[in-house]
Amino acid sequence: MAENILKKLVNNSQTAIDDGTYDVDVNLEKSSKDFVQIINSNPHPTLLTEIKFSSPSLGKIRTISDPASVAKQMISGGSKALSILTQPHLFNGSPEYFIKVRGAVDVPLLMKDIMIDKIQIDAAEKIGADYMLLIQSLFDNGFLDEIDEFIDYGHKKGLKILLEVHTENEFKNALETNADLIGINNRNLDTLEIDLKTTEKVLENFDGSRPILSESGIETPEDIQYLKKCGAKAFLIGSSIMKSDNIEEQVRRLVKAY
């Protein structure tokens, strides 16, 4: 099953590349703020909130509306950085949404996509992304070669890398890279099921030598308090905020978790 979902994600990215999704003609500035610095100095939970209108597990999450307006509501609520889906297939994302948000806010932005090709990294640079996503399991399962090459290329383009893992073994491999931030996805890509205990298990023997982001399935202030105890310093939250009737209020509630 895992192979199937990963393969599908890789194929979707290839289709988007072939369709010219990443042929963007802009040259936008990055944020003036440093996300890791924010994580290290913020006394409250540092939220990376996600603008996504659909997902493979939930289907349609929210009617597509102006992403810049959603972004501003999130930041008013206390979000410190934003993740924006640029993958059209299954996620209803688009580099155009990213460009709109980049023009409207000055916070660190993550281009959230299944990165399989340097063309996408070039696009991330052009649209003013601060971070790009890499998924450790795509390299560990042989869908992509040379993770270091991707990371080095991203760094050359002025991007920081969020490297996503799900298992202890992937985490061990990720720690050997030059990724700027490691994210632990509580969602199992084999089954799409979520278990917040994933973060606890993966961080069991970790010495805290670099900041860790916990991703997926975070809905309540209690979830954040639990994940903080496990060693997470920042939190990627998408669906539970995008589903909310009052985005700003929902973000504010989570930021007040501690």
Account of the 3D structure:
The structure is a single chain. This protein is of the alpha/beta class and 258 residues long. The protein is built from 12 helices and 10 strands. The strands form 2 sheets. Strands 1-4-5-6-7-8-9-10 form an 8-stranded parallel beta barrel, surrounded by 7 helices. A two-stranded antiparallel sheet has the order 2-3. The protein starts with a helix and ends with a helix. The mean pLDDT is 94.
Topology:
Blueprint: H1 2-18, H2 35-41, E1 46-51, E2 54-55, E3 59-60, H3 67-77, E4 81-85, H4 95-104, E5 109-112, H5 118-126, E6 131-135, H6 136-140, H7 147-156, E7 160-165, H8 168-175, E8 181-185, H9 197-202, E9 212-215, H10 221-230, E10 234-237, H11 239-242, H12 247-255
Parallel strand pairs: 1-4, 1-10, 4-5, 5-6, 6-7, 7-8, 8-9, 9-10
Antiparallel strand pairs: 2-3
Helix pairs in contact: 3-4, 3-12
